[in-house]
Predict the 3D structure of the following.
Amino acid sequence: MAYELMDRKIMKSMLRGTAVVLLSATGLLLLAGCREDMQNQPKFIPLRENEFYADGRSARPRLEGTIARGQLEDDPLLYTGKVNGQEADQFPFPVSAADLARGRERFNIFCAPCHSQLGDGNGMVVQRGFKKPPSYYEPRLLKAPVGHFFNVMTNGWGAMGDYSAQVPVADRWRIAAYIRALQYSQTGNTPTAQQVAKQEPSQAPAIAPRVAPKPQPSATENTEAK
């Protein structure tokens, strides 16, 4: 009798445990199906068809006369490099030593592969066969307003594509300032040199000097050497 009572208790305990497991699993399944707040969100999926509108598109056209937040380009000088439709020879903000350092960094990343770190147009991709860009020390570019360099970076020029997607507006101006500093370091005379060159000696970032090409021996010298 004692063994029979024990077996009954064990069976009841096992049945209760099984029932608890089944109830818990059922509850979890029911809870998983009640996620209306996360699974059925009242939103439009980009590029997905939407029957709510007559044209069937979820993406709505921009309302006329509206501008997205953060896209109000209300400073022509800052965003176009021009004043009254002409390329400006002034900066939209004071150029500091930190701006020049940032401009040098961005220049070496985006511009130096073609223009070289010296700005003479003999970058590494040019040495490998790409079309050579003009040197920044040509009279035409020495006289060019600083807005010209911003405009070229923004819209492209000749074989050079635009860099408006890769380089933010402020960094384009910093690169233009660094180009002016490069020009000033070699010639001491550019239209806006005083705007970027009047830095304290302890604060001004180092500018790589232009290296003159090594002279090649003439044919006469080669003959005499032999």
